[in-house]
Design brief:
The complex is a heterodimer of chains A (249) and B (315).
Chain A (H helix, E strand, L loop, with lengths): L1 E5 L2 E3 L21 E3 L1 H15 L5 E8 L3 H11 L3 E6 L6 H15 L3 E5 L10 H9 L2 E12 L2 E8 L2 E8 L2 E5 L11 H7 L4 E5 L11 E7 L8 E2 L3 H10 L5
Parallel strand pairs in A: 1-4, 1-6, 4-5, 5-11, 6-10, 7-10
Antiparallel strand pairs in A: 2-3, 7-8, 8-9
Helix pairs in contact in A: 2-5, 3-4
Chain B lengths: L3 E5 L9 H13 L2 E8 L3 H8 L6 E6 L8 H11 L5 E5 L2 H13 L5 E4 L1 E2 L4 E6 L4 E7 L4 E5 L15 E4 L10 E7 L12 E5 L10 H9 L3 E4 L1 H5 L20 E5 L5 H4 L7 E6 L6 H4 L2 E4 L2 H14 L2
Helix pairs in contact in B: 3-4, 5-9
The chains are: A alpha/beta (249), B alpha/beta (315).
Bound molecules: flavin-adenine dinucleotide (FAD) and adenosine monophosphate.
Chain lengths: 249, 315
């Protein structure tokens, strides 16, 4: 089984982003960048699949500027076999990313594609579903458990209200939720080894894919801050204020 | 083409989910006629409920055994058949809508606008990005607008007064891609987390699943729902779908009580829209106090039982 994993380079989840004063977007200059946390989980799952004897090769792909190589090197240090950077300096929307990943999947003859359920910058939660649609494959989104079974996969999904388990034939697209696994930290020797693993670069504009933006961002603004509250001294004051001031009890 | 919206109803074959009512309100703000698609199995009653919502032109009822569970591949195939008539396709941004709608968008060559919190016009919407640290106003240039709606950002539409016609539609052959195996749903008599008027959430500070009982006791006394931080869910204190936050549920109750929760940005993303926020935490520097209307510093194991007593005594 050939496994493809998509890993996005995003503003680190610990950074408190600031909106630019001209409202054109958020400040990303000189901000710490990392692999999207959900994609670390997807990479980890792919590696575990291979370690359990279900996968032959784990290829990890990132789409974006040159610096995405760092994300790929991290995935290689975790244990992925090969990296592909699809270079593009354009601002890409999920549909464009799904199209590019679709081309890669065909080129790589992937049987299983793992993505994160959501990128923590655009919070779109779309790319995996779109990729599955474009390829005509089954989709298992928000996965918290993945099992290789005869002729396919069993995917347990986190849904509102509980869990749902689906069976799907391969090839398939799966998107990782937080509780699928706990990603490993790359060990130093593996970080060194990762520097020698193959990393190929493709030009995103030459893959014959329509990546033109469909959305115009008119304005990005900071949300209205909540007004500062008060500290109450004890339970009696809290109950009194909730009842007589806020009127919510 | 005249503007018309197809709204995918979320339901469990017997009841229409509250998220559907909120999505109707967003669709009304976009303008044009609104049809609701009720796809399922043995769900004619749901279609009647949907037809009673004021402002709906028509309810499309698609019944088939294959539609008993909302599988994305099958629903997408069904909706694709109906799509030519519509300029807008909308669904709630719940795990139901998030799963199926992007699949439909890709097949329609449309860039979905996810999780909108406001409607500016038929093609312009506001949506949070970066865990709600920023709000983006975006205009869609696609011929078909595909949109998921954050239910807590819109009032729920009325449930009575409408008399929409119900049309049964022929279900086309559906792709046999994924199949349902089983489900494990949390049975609870408490109000639903995403629609409750009061939510009491616990975090890592609770220390164990057993200790979570004091949160449940407080919630039950207030007829509220129980929520949790990711840390509490990851530690196994409570089921996964209790998680409130950027990647869990978004709630906006009248009263949100955060107990033993530090207030990470990813948690705030799911509850900062609440009307009144109470924080109980022993660390006076905890960031949760920056968003709390009422903060009480102290040990939750003393405070929560005291709070339960005080509320009981004052009734
Ligand atoms: C990609 C990603 C997505 C995420 N999504 C979410 C999400 O959707 N929702 C979410 O909640 N988190 C999410 N997180 C996790 C988030 O970053 C925090 O780690 C998490 O919210 C912390 O949970 P907590 O506040 O319960 O735990 P902690 O941060 O450990 O806080 C525990 C608090 O309890 C207090 N406490 C301890 N004992 C007591 C006591 N006896 N009495 C009173 N107070 C006490 C402590 O002072 C502390 O403030 C996400 C993280 C990532 C990377
Ligand atoms: N530029 C990108 N490069 C690689 N993977 C991506 C990129 N954008 C999105 N993805 C994948 O798609 C998932 C969902 O992203 P989104 O739909 O933007 O929330 C991410 O977790 C990644 O796995």
């Amino acid at each position: 089984m050939k496994i493809l994993v998509a890993a996005k380079r995003v503003v680190d989840y610990n950074v408190k982003v600031r909106v630019r004063s001209d409202h054109s977007g958020v400040e990303t200059a000189n901000v710490k960048m990392s692999m999207n946390p959900f994609d670390e989980i997807a990479v980890e799952e792919a590696i575990r699949f291979k370690e359990a004897g279900h996968g032959d090769e784990v290829v990890v792909a990132s789409i974006g500027p040159r610096q995405c190589e760092e994300v790929l090197r991290t995935a290689l240090a975790m244990g992925a076999d090969r990296g592909v950077l699809v270079r593009s300096d354009a601002a890409l929307e999920p549909l464009a990313v799904a199209r590019l990943l679709g081309v890669l999947a065909e080129r790589e003859k992937s049987d299983l594609i793992l993505l994160g359920k959501q990128a923590i910058d655009d919070d779109a939660n779309q790319t995996g579903q779109m990729l599955a649609a474009l390829l005509g494959w089954a989709q298992g989104t928000f996965a918290c458990r993945l099992e290789a079974v005869q002729d396919g996969l069993r995917v347990t999904r986190e849904i509102d209200g509980g869990l749902e388990t689906l069976f799907m034939p391969l090839p398939a697209v799966v998107t990782a939720d937080l509780r699928l696994n706990e990603p490993r930290y790359p060990k130093l020797p593996n970080i060194m080894k990762a520097k020698k693993k193959p990393l190929e670069t493709l030009d995103g504009d030459s893959l014959g894919v329509d990546i033109s933006p469909r959305l115009h961002t008119l304005r990005v603004s900071a949300p209205e801050p909540r007004k500062g509250g008060v500290r109450v001294t004890d339970v009696a004051e809290l109950v009194d204020r909730l009842r007589n001031e806020a009127k919510v009890l | 083409m005249t503007q018309a919206t197809l709204l995918l109803a979320e339901h469990d074959n017997s009841e229409l989910a509250p998220s559907t009512y909120a999505t109707v309100t967003a669709a009304v703000a976009m303008g044009g006629a609104i049809d609701i698609l009720v796809a399922g199995d043995g769900c004619a009653g749901v279609a009647s409920t949907a037809a009673a919502i004021p402002g709906i032109r028509r309810v499309q009822l698609a019944e088939a055994e294959a539609l008993r569970h909302p599988l994305a591949e099958q629903l997408a195939a069904l909706v694709l058949d109906l799509a030519p008539e519509y300029t807008h396709l909308v669904a709630p941004a719940t795990t139901f809508g998030k799963n199926v709608l992007p699949r439909i968008a890709a097949l329609l060559d449309s860039q979905q606008v996810s999780d909108i919190v406001a409607v500016e016009s038929h093609d312009t919407f506001i949506r949070p990005i970066y865990a709600g640290n920023a709000l983006a106003t975006v205009r869609s240039t696609d011929g078909k607008k595909v949109i998921t709606v954050r239910p807590t950002a819109f009032e729920r539409a009325d449930s009575h007064g409408g008399e929409a016609a119900i049309t049964a539609i022929d279900v086309p052959e559906l792709p046999p891609l994924s199949t349902f195996v089983d489900e494990d749903l949390n049975q609870s008599d408490r109000p639903q987390l995403d629609s409750a008027r009061i939510v009491v959430s616990g975090g890592r500070g609770l220390g164990s699943g057993e200790n979570f009982r004091i949160i449940e006791e407080l919630a039950d006394l207030l007829n509220g729902a129980v929520g949790a931080s990711r840390a509490a869910v990851d530690a196994g204190y409570v089921p996964n779908d209790y998680q409130v936050g950027q990647t869990g549920k978004v709630v906006a109750p009248d009263l949100y009580i955060a107990v033993g929760i530090s207030g990470a940005i990813q948690h705030l993303a799911g509850m900062a829209g609440s009307k009144v926020i109470v924080a109980i935490n022993k660390d006076e520097e905890a960031p949760i106090f920056e968003v709390a209307d009422y903060g009480l510093v102290g040990d939750l194991f003393t405070i929560v039982p005291e709070l339960v007593e005080a509320i009981r005594a004052s009734r």
